[in-house]
Each structure stands twice: as C-alpha cells, then as structure tokens.
C-alpha cells in the first residue's frame, strides 16, 4: 500500500533528522523529498531506499516504511538506534509507492513452486516479466531468487521483513525446519564468517573456503543471513523453485551499513573468490557457486539491475551479461 514520503528534516529513529543532499528540485509540502543515500544530522546514516520504484533524477525516493540506513557517526560509541537510524516520519498527505494491496499471485507461486505467494500486482508483474527476459536469454528463472528478503534475518528488509509465502515476520529458524536433511557438514562461526542464529550453516566446503577468502580480501567478518535450505524451508521463505540454497551452493550476505564503494568491492571480491552468481538487493547480496556467470536484481532478473548502477559497473567489468 502507499506510504508517506520522507523529506528533508523528517525524523529518524536515532533522534536526528534527514538532510536531503541527493536532489534539489523536487518538493513535498515545501520540503525536499529524500532520496537514496541522504544522510542525517548526526552525520552519516545514509538512507537505503528499498520499498518502491519511484525515482527522482535517477535516484530512488525514500519513504517511511521505515527504510534502512547505514550507521550514523554516533554508532560508536553510543550504539543503539544510531547503528540503524531508519526513517521515523514523513508527510501527512503526500504518499509514494505501490497503491495496490498485496494479494495472492498464482502465476508467481507457480514460478516459485509455492502454494501461495502474497505480493502487490506491480511486484508480481515485474517478477513475471523479468522471468520471461531470462528465459529468452537462455537462463532458468527458477534458479534466480525473485522474492528473497534474507530469511527474516534483516530487520529492515523489504515487505516489512515478512515472508510472502507464510506471512511470518522476522527470522525463520532453518535449523528447526531443516532437521538432518543436509548432507553437508556443519560450519561453525569463526574469524571470517558469522552464521546468524536462524541460519543452517551446512553449505558445501567450497562455499566456506570461498567465503573465508572473500572475508580476507574485504577485511571484515561476513554475516550470513541465509545458508542451506531444505525444500520445505526454501518454500517457506519464498526461495526459487530450484534454488542453489537447496544444494548448499549459496549464501546471502548481510550488507546494511556498507557504502557504495564497499559494496562494489564486495562484488569484485566475491567474483575473485570463486562465486559466479550474484544477486543484488538493497540490504544483502546473494552469491553462489553454480559455475555460470549470471546476475540479477531484486525481482530475480537483470531487468532490475539498473536500480543498482554501481553493481552493474563491476559486473560488466567482469564480463557478466547484463
């Protein structure tokens, strides 16, 4: 449904207000409309527009859903909301985003192999159109993740961090659902990898080796918000029908708080470390070892990659068909 637009001087969860610097000519109620990357008055805290497809001067508009944000300058030492200074207010009468309600989308459910998928009509149309583009390009769209959201492990993820399949909000415990279904060994958290508590870490040893190499290149520990998925668990979180997660070939790496240059560095490092498939989302990146060089945006196809021009730049430099 439509939500209030976020603007210059509108509040953040950390007590600061937004400072619009990303555009200077579009207003709502006499205030500049906030766009992707705008900081706050505490310094830092760049906003990450996630929840609509409305642009101003080629930048996504920010709404009050809330939208996620990088830590501001008071995250150390104060912590708390300064480490996730999300939007906390907006216009009373100017709205942005999809005005249509989320309803069952049987064609998307068939594509995913799920019983029911609840999405807005525009999102469903984008997914189906993108799947056709991938088919025409000779790719299997049932291996691309069209509705991923980090399995509930990212509080600021799209759709209110709620599964479009079972409507569960927040982390869904893969360990409780997967049981002993995976033939892979258990992988413990360590210097290079942090498996979030809800994640089943039983991915293939090659994935772990690649992750460790990737962590060493970028210089920080990787937080994994999705790992191995059994078929039942994969369906519950809206995974692709033939998801690489079910083969132990894939992980989703939490990316909130990173700058654009850091996310570019991450993609390059992932490729250099042996990952071949790259799925780009606002708050995480999907990487897997399927062997084929493919990339997609948040609708599970290349059609939304232009929303992430910084990612397109790196992918093209590495020969990915965009």
What can you tell me about this protein's structure?
With about 325 residues, the chain is an alpha+beta fold. The chain has 2 domains: about 1-100, Sandwich (Tumour Suppressor Smad4); about 105-315, 2-Layer Sandwich (Muramoyl-pentapeptide Carboxypeptidase, domain 2). It is about 25% helix and about 15% strand. It contains 9 helices and 16 strands. The strands form 6 sheets. It has a 6-stranded mixed sheet with strand order 11-12-13-15-14-16, with helices on one face. Strands 1-8 form a two-stranded antiparallel ribbon. The chain has a two-stranded antiparallel sheet with strand order 2-3. Strand 5 (about 55) and strand 6 (about 60) form a beta hairpin. The longest helix has 16 residues, at about 120-135. The mean pLDDT is about 90.
Could you give a short description of this structure?
This protein is of the alpha+beta class and 322 residues long.
CATH architecture of the largest domain: 2-Layer Sandwich
Number of domain units: 2
Helical proportion, percent range: 10-25%
Low-pLDDT runs of 5+ residues are none
Q: N- to C-terminal separation? A: 31 Å
Biggest sheet, spatial arrangement of strands: 11-12-13-15-14-16
CATH class designation of the largest domain: Alpha Beta
Q: How does the helix and strand content classify structurally?
A: alpha+beta
Radius of gyration: 19 Å
């Amino acid at each position: 449904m439509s939500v209030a637009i976020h603007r210059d001087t509108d509040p953040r969860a950390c007590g600061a207000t937004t400072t619009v610097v990303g555009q200077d000519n579009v207003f709502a109620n006499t205030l500049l409309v906030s766009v992707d990357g705008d900081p706050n008055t505490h310094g830092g805290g760049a906003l990450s527009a996630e929840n609509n497809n409305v642009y101003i001067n080629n930048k996504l508009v920010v709404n009050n859903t809330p939208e996620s944000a990088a830590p501001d300058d008071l995250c150390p030492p104060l912590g708390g909301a300064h480490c996730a200074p999300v939007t906390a207010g907006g216009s009373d009468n100017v709205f942005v985003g999809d005005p249509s309600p989320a309803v069952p989308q049987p064609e998307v459910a068939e594509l995913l192999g799920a019983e029911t998928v609840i999405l807005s009509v525009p999102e469903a149309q984008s997914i189906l159109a993108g799947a056709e583009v991938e088919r025409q390009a000779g790719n299997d769209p049932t291996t691309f993740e069209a509705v991923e959201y980090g399995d509930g492990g990212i509080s600021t993820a799209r759709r209110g961090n709620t599964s479009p399949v079972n409507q569960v909000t927040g982390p869904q415990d893969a360990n409780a659902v997967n049981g002993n279904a995976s033939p892979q060994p258990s992988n413990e958290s360590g210097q290079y990898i942090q498996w979030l508590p809800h994640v089943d870490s039983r991915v293939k040893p090659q994935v772990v080796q690649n992750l460790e190499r990737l962590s060493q290149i970028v210089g920080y520990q990787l937080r994994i918000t999705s790992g191995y998925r059994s078929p039942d668990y994969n369906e519950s979180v809206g995974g692709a029908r033939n998801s690489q997660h079910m083969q132990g070939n894939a992980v989703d790496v939490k990316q909130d708080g990173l700058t654009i240059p850091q996310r570019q560095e991450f993609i390059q490092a992932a490729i250099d470390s042996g990952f071949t498939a790259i799925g780009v989302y606002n708050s995480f990146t999907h990487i897997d070892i399927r062997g084929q060089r493919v990339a997609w945006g948040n609708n599970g196809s290349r059609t939304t990659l232009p929303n992430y021009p910084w990612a397109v730049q790196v992918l093209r430099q590495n020969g990915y068909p965009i």
